[in-house]
Write a structure and sequence with these properties.
Keywords: DNA-binding, Transcription, Transcription regulation. It comes from Pseudonocardia adelaidensis. Residues 11-109 form the HTH hxlR-type domain. It holds the Pfam family HxlR. By secondary structure, this protein is mainly α. It has 2 domains: 1-89, Orthogonal Bundle (Arc Repressor Mutant, subunit A), CATH 1.10.10.10; 90-153, no CATH class. The chain is built from 7 helices and 2 strands; from the N terminus they run ααααββααα. It has helices at 12-20, 25-34, 40-47, 51-64, 85-88, 91-104, 147-150; strands spanning 67-71, 79-83. It has a two-stranded antiparallel sheet. A hairpin with a 7-residue loop joins strand 1 (67-71) and strand 2 (79-83). The two termini are 25 Å apart.
């Protein structure tokens, strides 16, 4: 059974999972990204998540710099949880996971279609080579250790 951390793994994916790998984490981020939810109560109602779990996740996101806790602009005693740039950059992860789920877990009629707000076109997630700009299939990706990892025993 996996522990709560991946301290023995020298892997950026493992480190990212320590921040957002918990069951509810990406769902909370998804609601903030695509539904514009910022309030504790809105997250709780829309997700049906237990209050103590939600509070712990939001506190964790603030500690990790994915969200900022901001005072309510109307002067209410409540505050908003607003995604930072670091949190907003999880958008392609959620888009890719949604497309994968549409294809492999719930094929057929997807419950949500992600569209470009400006033109209305369907959003498509794609892996592209940074140098040549060409699409790259999963079987055409190679993992090369960096100098740091290559020097480790």
């Amino acid at each position: 059974m996996l522990g709560r951390t991946y301290a023995t793994q020298d892997c950026s994916a493992a480190r990212a999972l320590e921040v957002v790998g918990e069951r509810w984490s990406l769902m909370i981020i998804r609601h903030a990204l695509f539904r514009g939810i910022t309030r504790f109560g809105e997250f709780q109602r829309s997700l049906g998540i237990a209050r103590n779990i939600l509070a712990a996740r939001l506190d964790h996101f603030v500690e990790e710099g994915l969200m900022e806790r901001q005072p309510d602009p109307t002067g209410s005693p409540y505050h908003d949880y607003v995604l930072t740039e670091k949190g907003r950059e999880l958008q392609p992860v959620i888009v890719a996971l949604t497309h994968w789920g549409d294809r492999w877990v719930a094929p057929g009629d997807p419950p949500v279609i992600l569209r470009h707000a400006r033109c209305g076109g369907a959003v498509h997630q794609q892996t592209v080579c940074r140098d040549c700009g060409q699409p790259v299939a999963a079987d055409a990706v190679e993992a090369h250790p960096t100098a740091r990892q290559a020097s480790q025993p």
